[in-house]
Amino acid sequence: MFSRQWWLLLLLTVLFVGLTSSLGFWQLSRAHLREQIEAEQTRNAALPALNNAQLENLATDSQLLYRSLALEGRWMSQWSVYLNRPMQGQAGFWVMTPLQLESGGVVLVQRGWAPRDPVLPNKAPTLKNAPDRVHVSGQWISPPSRLMELESTASSPDTSFSQVRQNLDVVQYERETGLKIRAVMRQNSTADDGLSREWPNLASRAQTNRGYAFQWFAMAAVGLLLFLWFQVFRKRRAVNSSASS
What we know:
Strand order of the largest sheet: 1-3-4-7-5
Radius of gyration: 27 Å
Order of helices and strands: HHEEEEEHEHEH
Number of strands: 7
Structural class: alpha+beta
Strand content: 15-25%
Shape: elongated
């Protein structure tokens, strides 16, 4: 007859296997969702580039991520933001500048990367003067992802416009500047501004989720095998040995 301890171990094993297996299936569902999103983005990237008029004619809630854009406008350099982001292991900034289109719409452009000043790390990089009108081509992207930030800095009551930042919240940025951002764009076209545009290739993250799923399923299998070995097979072997002696 099985003891109370055996039943408790069985219950714990069932809970452990159930939890780790559910996490494994959740990671698989995440991988499937990422593949669907990445497939849509690949289709968008293959479409012809949108110009000013075509972008303005889209519904305001359209988010055609990775759709090519070929826009003309002028830089609103007074509202540039410099995000702390490394590139190829070197500290520096992503330069984010709004581009005002002829129609009045505004696109926030991730223009390029500039190195950090080794003496004054919080100093905004100095950019070359841009012409009055510029042609910018690139891809429609998501707003910059958020990095870890000290709470005191993130919730600072200072209402002045800060150019050097750790993160950029587009909604907050719109409140600060009074601009309405139509889209966020990553510039790929060349320009004589001294900025680097060696953007990393965005590899599929679905395989990462599948790797996590494998780990969770492996943990579930190990938990089940340990219970079977120590609580079933070895106990049965001990019982058989006692009976034969």
